Amino acid sequence: MEDMMQDQINQLVDYIMKWCLWQFNSRAWDRKDQNEGILTKTMQILCEEPVERDTPAERCYWVEAVLLARYFKRNYPWLSKMDNNEIKLLMQGLKEKIDYLTITGSLNKELTNPTY
Amino acid sequence: MPYHSFKCSECIPERKKHAVVKGEGEDLTSCLPEGYLNTIPGTISERGCAFCGAKHVIGTPMKDVIHLCHGPVGCTYDTWQTKRYISDNDNYQFKYTFATDMKEKDIVFGAEKLLKKNIIEAFKAFPEIKRMTVYQTCASALIGDDIDAIAKEVMEEIPDVDIFVCNSPGFAGPSQSGGHHLINIAWINQKVGTFEPKITSDYVINYVGEYNIQGDQEVMVDYFKRMGIQVLSTFTGNGSYDDLRGMHLAQLNVLECARSAEYICNELRVRYGTPRMDIDGFGFKPLSESLLKVGLFFGLEKEAQKIIDEEIARWKPEFDWYARRLKGVKVCLWPGGSKLWHWAHVIHEEMGVDVVSLYTKFGHQGDMEKGIARCEEGALAIDDPNELESIEAMKELNPDVIFTGVRPGEVAKKLRVQYLNAHAYHNGPYKGFEGWVRFARDIYNAVYSPIHQLSGLDISKDEIDTDKGFMTRQMISDVKIDKEAAAASDERQYTGDYDCVTKLRGKKYPKLEKESFSV
Hints:
The complex is a heterodimer.
Chain A: H1 2-19, H2 28-46, H3 56-75, H4 84-104
Chain B: E1 19-21, H1 50-59, E2 66-70, H2 92-95, E3 98-99, H3 104-109, H4 112-125, E4 131-136, H5 138-142, H6 147-157, E5 162-166, H7 176-190, E6 204-210, H8 216-226, E7 230-236, H9 241-245, E8 252-255, H10 258-272, E9 276-278, H11 284-298, H12 301-326, E10 330-333, H13 339-343, H14 346-351, E11 354-360, H15 365-374, E12 380-383, H16 387-397, E13 401-404, H17 406-414, E14 418-421, H18 432-447, H19 450-454, H20 473-477, H21 483-488
């Protein structure tokens, strides 16, 4: 079961790393905000929960989340068989993996530069 | 770490950490070369300097400006016919080149008087132009000329002119990328917020990191305008100086080349709260999603979708004709910075070509992260290669075509490897749906060029068939395709105009001509 979830997470990771740019902002704190903002909103859309988009920054996150959620729903049929708790677990795992690849496990030495 | 060692660089051990192979199962936590470091002594880098990065990449594409180089005349090299950042005002910005032409005596006695004389002369020679950018060079920086003070003096004496000073001498960074950074910050510090352009829509963006290479900007701006969006400024291709002073008034910064212009987007986000949205203008899928993203942000998704549907219906059959014939072509993707990641995945996914290597001359590790994440396994990724390494890689990988700049491109030709100009393009624009077809056509024309066969023959010793003509492109390319499937499809070769940009300039946009709007 855990292996299956890991495999599903990897499918989502592969898509994000290949087709998205938002996870690659140039500083660690920025990547943290982007990953948190966009993946949380993606999870909310997938779970059909309300999504805040009142500020311009939130609206930007929401836009990326809408496209991501649409792609996931269209291309991964197993997603429609999951209940909200499973989706939340999946998205938590996805965020941890994206954080690892782009922040905590990243070899990019510029991530901790204090200025832009 | 899966480092790759070049035989030719064994005598420069520091180079070892600048090349990696993306092996099976590798990801960014195990596979990333060093980047954006000072060039190692002994290696002949292909990089430009920080002055070049500031002036020739970012500053000069601004169209309604006298661009003055305060230094020796040689620093103005990259001008007419070496750059293709066109503009809709008859290419004023690169048709005329200005330099103070510093000599030895100026180095000894100072060149501030010379600078002031040149600024005033230039404004007098072109009285219709009231804006100027002045660029420091290594020479004027080392002698300590105070360019800011001179600019201030002139602006006080001639009140209707405005001057921007960029202090980014050639030595101000490891590569041109250092200059990108400096001019981004200088522009927001000196000029943003000092002018208020007219707002004509409820939906207003800055289009950032876009340099109108052979018309890229004009193609993309056409899409935005068709959606009803005002492009307040473009940083900086075909961009207007005063519009760029008003960047603080936009609701969204749409960022294309993050390598050269993320700095100003980040600063606009911090100082004015304007969000940054990164997009990809190349390729059917990435471009469609980019337009949808901008549309969604403003509630204009239907308008975006309409454009996408129209453009794909018009251009996809022509793209498919080339894609069918490009499948399996081996490519070395060797651009300067951002095209490394703009193209790494989409040329493979949409054209079927195999990216066997990618390199960046001046990119940072962040660019390599994007490129390596997007390319397929087995690709050789090189940071800041020297010419010998490039030659060794070409001999080892045996690519069909290289996407790179003019100088390494000429080296490739000598090895009988075809080359496409990734910086200034061959027959661009390459952005936009039609542009993507033009790119595919250029790759096709390069890979299957008849001259490629002929150049391999040595008439002093090879036997030449005198009863046969040379093979045409299609005779070569169509050997490997399924002819029945091709005949049954609606695929066709490119039918667009030789010049697909000029006609956009007089176009009317009803959605932008409404009487009132709420902003």
